[in-house]
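sorry for the late reply, my laptop died twice this morning and i had to redo everyting from scratch. anyway the thing you sent over, i finally got around to it. pasting the sequence first so we're on the same page, its 430 residues, then the predicted structure underneath. double check i copied it right bc i was rushing
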Amino acid sequence: MGTTLIVGASQAGVQIAATLRELGDTDPIVLVGEEPHRPYQRPPLSKKWLKSELVPGDVILRTREWYDAQGVELISGDRVVTVHRDLDGSGIATTQGGRSLGFDRLALATGSSVRRLTIPGTDFHGVHYLRDADDALALEAALHDPAHRRIVVIGGGFIGLEIAAVARSMDKEVTVLEAAPRLIGRVVSEETSAFYLAAHRRRGTRVVLGASLTRIVGGVADAAGRRSRVVAVEFADGTRIPADLVVIGIGVIARTELAVQLGLEVDRGVVVDEHALASDGRTVAAGDCTVMPNPYALGIPGPTRIESVNNALEQAKIAAASLLGERPTYRSVPWFWSDQADLKLQIAGLSTGYDRVVVRGRPEDERFAVLYYRDGRLIAADCVNQPAEFLAIRGALGKGHTIAPEAAADLSTPLKQSITEPLVAQREAS
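ok and here's the structure:
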């Protein structure tokens, strides 16, 4: 079949290469990543890494020996900037470093980049984003500096709250600023959101909702003309919160530059079908850079963007098979997790379009689950410090089973004993 070029040494990119080999492909594979590091896991960067509980080897995905043994040429520290493709699907990619890479099959695993805050002052010293390993190294050092006592986190999503939890564990004075009326409002219910608000406040974090910032304030530049250092953030009404460090975590944007260049359909990401094929029918894409049909049978139809390690891995497996001419269909139940101090949130399914929630347990005990329903059928759940219930729910969703709302609320019965087939399935079977 010829050479496969994988653009993006992400978890999705590495998984595409691994799956190609597992499926028996022996043709050359070239994997290109713009970071100078070997491909690594990103989730630990906002958790254990910042607490200096990990070393680089702990997050590396594959050893150098693996790439050699699998015949995968890994190019690190270079970025693909142009791709020219012929009518037969082959082409040449050019990197920023001047390499020309010929290919017969193309996979995009370009991931996403941080969303930048567009107010004055984001270029001051002491203002951080967290997306890659270099960001994590810089933020880790800054957090461990005893001179940095007052930490302001802009953004009350998963990344912002994880960083805030780490900073509080280091006895920093932490303030979280969220422009929306509640925390993690894009992905969880009001019940889960209210719990996290109360939980972070109990742990000493100041949380401001509906925060309208106008600028980040810096001190006077030194005699050498070096950039000012952050000293505060300022609200629309002129009030300020002092800050020694500011961390911005307001989401990510899919990287679609090469897809646009190739003329592929793009809508908040590279649009792919259930086989991970882009609109040209031959390029595959996987991971955070994609928008895909909802893979979950009970979900709302239409394009879905899923930012999770599980999605990157499962979609990459489908993409690799599609490169070999197979047409498997992605039908994995999405799941996510977030570690915030001693609170582990695990989410199974997609709650889009829910019309009812059932809270199982007592949020004040910091062990509970929120189950989402639509038309009486279970579609998703948030589980806080409830790993067994998360596994039971994820397993049920994967089999198309459900849990009656009344049974979900009954703490006297283990959740896994309440799993049933939905009535419509029972009727069809009879």
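The radius of gyration is 23 Å.
thats about all i looked at so far, will dig more tmrw
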